[in-house]
Amino acid sequence: MTHAIGQGVAGPSTTGGSGMLDHVFRRMGFGASAEELATFARLPQVGVIGYLLNYDRAPDDVDAKINNAAYIGVTTRGLFSPNSVINDARQRWLFRMVHSQRPMQEKLALFWHNHFATAYTKVAGAFGQEHGTKMMDGKASEVAGQRRGQIQLFRDMATGRFDELLIEVAKDPAMLVWLDGRLNVRARPQENFGRELMELFTTGVGHYTEDDVYAAARVFTGWNLRLSGDRTTALTSYYEYVYSAAQHDPTAKTFTFPVMPDGSRTIPARAAADGEQDGVDLIRALARRPQTADRLARRFFAFFVSELTAPSDALVTGMREAYLNSDTSIKAMLVRLFTSSEFLEDASEFARYSWPIEYAVRAVKETGWAGLSVDAAMTPLVNMGLQLYEPPDVNGWALGPEWFSTSSMLSRMNFAAALMANQRFNLQKASEAARTSPEALLDLQLKRFTPAPLPDNTRTALLDYLRQGVTWPVTDAQLASKASGLARLIVGSSEYQFN
Amino acid sequence: MNFTRRQFVRGGVTAFTFGFAAPQFLTDLALAQSGGARNLVVLYLGGGNDALSTLVPYGDASYYARRPTIGVPAGSVLQLGTDSAGNVLGLHPALTGLKSIFNDGRLAVIQRTGYQNSSRSHFEGFDIWGTANPGNSQGTGWLGRYLDTLPSPVDPLVGWNTTRETPRPLIARTVGVPSITNPATYSFASPNTGAEAGYERSTAQRISSHLPADRPHLAFVNSTAQAALGTLDRVGTVATYRPSLTYPNNGLGQALQAVAGAMNRQIGTKVFWVTTGGFDTHANQNPVNGAYNTLMATVNGGLISFYNDVKNQGLLDSTMVILFSEFGRRVTENGSSGTDHGAAGVMMALGGLVRGGLYGTAAKLNTDPANPGLENATADVRYETDFRAVYARVLDDWLGANSVSILGADFRPGAPRIL
């Protein structure tokens, strides 16, 4: 069945065959390379979905492929230092998006990066670029104290229990800098984190009062940071969470909603030494509020299924119950989502506006990367509006149609141009068999690239373009021009901007 | 999450895209419309500007009592004199350029602007200021609704957003405002050269001109691409603009230089959107020589360069800048030498026809529970002038529009006479 609104993007149904496999990989990852399509073509849909979601079973070997010529390159200025230089961290994350055998893990890390949107600039402004980079995305096995960065925390806990994820986020050094938790002290509580915890991380506006914000600020007094390890250099030392009892406000805090397991709305006065439990109680309560469950369900639906239509009440209810009945298991909620008819129905295909990074990584995976560096995507991504580790504010990026402005659309079209210029020779070689006619070349490229279905006028315009200035069959030089020009027009088309 | 723009994509795409239909005709139209036309530059200070550090009530002992570490010292403020209630006020010491504009009689400072039950959320607050609708902040923006009143077809460059995302205030029903962050990089690249590159551009233009009514989301992206391709050449002329002075080399300075360039090149733009961020000063505000001082220096450097540049070009009388933030901040400093989210803020307006001066009255900052100038148990400054009254003055007396229909209510009574 097909929703009328879904036709808004996709037009007539095109699913079935490899179309649905592409769809699953676009949603649960960043698109599929030709090799991935070949590998998974014979698995049933449910098997592919299960494989992608239960990624713990897949090898976690992607970083070992960095600097291997068979994979996309990284561009180093000196030693490649993804744990201490933020642009190298960006390249490592992009590399993982292109080549990880656990694409869903990277996709969820991106989801949580937007949900708990923390910006590197402020963290580095407080503690310098080495600590800032480590705090954002340090790899535990490669840094002092084995303290993982915030994005690594998301990778580790992406499908676990949401209340536990929230507690770790509240203790995360980057978050303690970003929302000023490290400055929240009993003498004068500082409400930045307490407010956003409710407004953005859990229930959303309308489900708490200003007095709840003030109480939440007092709850988290004393949640702080300290410098540990060999403190002589930034590389050998690390910041870690510490609960500072002396800075905690031990008096009772009353909310407008239940915060204690017995349903009480008041967190009782506690000895300062036990005051850390205040925050745990509040977070566990917030994670279990039905408004939090519904908000997460809707955000997951928009991220994985459709931005063009709202989830059915039945699906939201099902996701909420799966989550609340499993001690806030994110995976339980996601299983309900990915086994819903909405996820696989034709109307959901191309029913999302591609995020810039979804667009760029998928373009690379479908085009090929021999001789390409992920660095080529870095500046274009800034211009498209998504720089990793640098969300515009704690509310994350503006999604959906808001990714699209004239300048960001130009950046997308120009990224396609730069990518195809880089891959000009490879595209020519891949197109040899199609040098006979414009139709053959267009058909070949539409097997390689996955735009939403092209309207007849677009198809006609592309064929007219292929005929301009040449007669078919074309020469090698003409084939290079037309193959790269056609690829940039397809990947730069509006149809390709849907995911 | 924000569903409004997608609802609008669903419902209004045909009308929305109409303006992009005939580039050459529209270019002529823009030139015809631009002669002597007034323009409005809206500057948003992102994060909730601490009004009490921008405009300092340095005669109020409660100010220093409640801000023992971050109060701006009385000896350093740039004195503006007294408001109508006899309060002495001064600008932050970094605002020397704004002080000179004030001395020229061309800077209006409007105290305690806001609205009842001020939102303390950045996002809801910004949307309320953007829609001018505290009751429902998810609709079109006030500037967007103004652009919607212009006779159609509307030239796409009638608005110019210098940021990447279209902000709430510019969201319109029928007009898509282009986002032009840097005129110099607003161009179309190709993997080929010469005629082949030209074929690509004309093909992209042709494809994007197709706006299928049965696929509104595709039509929306196509219309965006079309607006980009249709405005490239005109925007390119702005990249060659050489200002009469050197702007600060930061985001705000460069954005304002592009605005002056667009005015100089007679692009025909009526509304420019400019922002500068970093005002969410929960910690280490250090107004005298730290973070807040830097923020003020950025605002001051950009605005005085812009003011002098357009003045040198003889465009000052057709230029008006208004400045706002989504809320003011808490009166009492917090434990981390910063301030938390508060209520009423300060707006400013400058331009060749602006009637300079201090508007409104400062709140007394004492913690007497009956203090009428404060709210939220005397934690926050209560608004005195509805921000929509300022919008009404700008719409009616600067843009020649009808503020009652655009704002949905009559805010003219009590609107400060800044023009």
Name the overall outline of chain A: globular
Q: Gyration radius of chain B, to the nearest Å?
A: 22 Å
Going by helix content, strand content and strand pairing, the class of chain B is alpha/beta
Largest two-chain interface? A-B, 76 and 70 residues
Radius of gyration of chain A: 24 Å
* Helix proportion range of chain B: 25-40%
The string of secondary-structure elements of chain A, in order, is HHHHHHHHHHHHEEEEHHHHHHHHHHHH
The N- to C-terminal Cα distance of chain B equals: 38 Å
Q: Shape of chain B, please?
A: globular
Share of helix among residues of chain A? 40-55%
In the predicted model, the low-confidence regions of chain B spanning at least 5 consecutive residues are 1-27
What does this structure look like?
The complex is a heterodimer of chains A (499) and B (419). Chain A has 499 residues and is mainly alpha-helical. Chain A contains 24 helices and four strands. Chain A has helices at residues 7-10, 18-28, 34-40, 45-53, 86-99, 103-115, 120-137, 150-157, 162-170, 173-178, 192-201, 210-219, 276-287, 290-304, 313-324, 330-338, 341-344, 356-367, 378-384, 406-422, 424-430, 438-448, 456-467, 476-491; strands spanning 223-229, 237-243, 253-254, 266-267. In chain A, strand 1 (223-229) and strand 2 form a beta hairpin. The longest helix of chain A has 18 residues, at 120-137. The radius of gyration of chain A is 24 Å and the shape is globular. Chain B is of the alpha/beta class. Chain B is built from 13 helices and 13 strands. In chain B, the strands form three sheets. In chain B, strands 1, 5, 6, 7, 8, 9, 10 and 13 form an eight-stranded mixed beta sheet that branches. In chain B, helix 1 (4-18) crosses helix 9 (216-239) and helix 8 (194-208) crosses helix 9 (216-239). Chain B is globular and about 75 Å long. The interface between A and B is large, with 76 and 70 residues.
